[in-house]
Amino acid sequence: MKTDSESHGHKRTAAESEASTLGEAELRPQLSAIIELAERLKAKSESDENVQQILIKARGLLDVVSRESAHARKSGHDARSTSDNRCDVLYIEDDSMSFASVKLLLGTKRALKVLPATSGEAGVALAQMHHPKLILLDLNLPDTHGSEVIQRLQKDSATARIPVIVISGDATPSQIERLLVLGARNYLTKPIEPAPFLAVIDEVMQANAAIRTT
């Protein structure tokens, strides 16, 4: 979850970017008018050093305003991009309704950002890219079985410590045991019940946070 300081920092960056853009909008026309007037005066009196100094300083100030505005816009964009790329939970699931219900539940009840992956290959790639705090995994994926996804995640040092919770309609005891042996932190069966589901999420997230701090 985003801390208060991170949230406030993002708000300040966005506000600074907006203020800088407004400042440029106000200053640029005025500086342009000064430059235009100075150029006219210069045309009438080439030897007037005061006019030349005004022209040089106005052009320099206009360059500064342009650079500062460009920097503020980039900083604001980078802050928004960082926020947009934040991923708390990666849900590898090809059923859009299942994903939507889990995303809504975790978003409203736990303020967690859930990223979708509709195939095992995409899920592994996104896990390596975003390093989520938790991975939710369906088993019957269009390109591979969830058990293969777990094994690939376990073999990669970058993703091996990310906890995986399987969410599947297959409640066969032997299947559950097999996935837990492969490395799944927990195994939930569909359809999920909100209260028990959130309890498992809380337990796994807290345990993983404790591991990260040690």
Question: How would you explain this protein's 3D organization?
Answer:
With 214 residues, the chain is of the alpha/beta class. The chain has two domains: 81 residues; 125 residues, Response regulator (Rossmann fold), CATH 3.40.50.2300. Helix content is 67%, strand content 10%. Strands 2-1-3-4-5 form a five-stranded parallel beta sheet, sandwiched between helices. Helix 3 links the parallel strand 1 and strand 2. Helix 1 runs antiparallel to helix 2 and helix 4 runs parallel beside helix 5. The longest helix is centred in the N-terminal third of the chain and has 41 residues. It is rod-shaped, with a radius of gyration of 28 Å.
Short descriptors:
214 residues; alpha/beta; Rossmann fold; 2 domains; rod-shaped
Instruction: Find the count of extended strands (DSSP E, 2+ residues).
Output: 5
Main sheet characteristics: 5 strands, parallel
So how many helices?
7
CATH top level class name of the largest domain: Alpha Beta
How many domains would you count in the coordinates? 2
Query: What is the CATH architecture assignment of the largest domain?
Result: 3-Layer(aba) Sandwich
Assign an overall shape.
rod-shaped
Structural class: alpha/beta
- Tell me roughly what share of residues is in helical segments: 55-70%
* Poorly predicted parts: 1-23, 77-83
CATH topology of the largest domain: Rossmann fold
Main β-sheet, spatial strand arrangement: 2-1-3-4-5
Strand content: 5-15%
Taking all residues together, what is the mean pLDDT? Answer: 79
User: CATH superfamily assignment of the largest domain?
Assistant: Response regulator
Series of secondary-structure elements, N-terminal to C-terminal:
HHEHEHEHEHEH
Give the N-to-C terminal Cα separation.
Answer: 19 Å
Backbone CA Rg = 28 Å
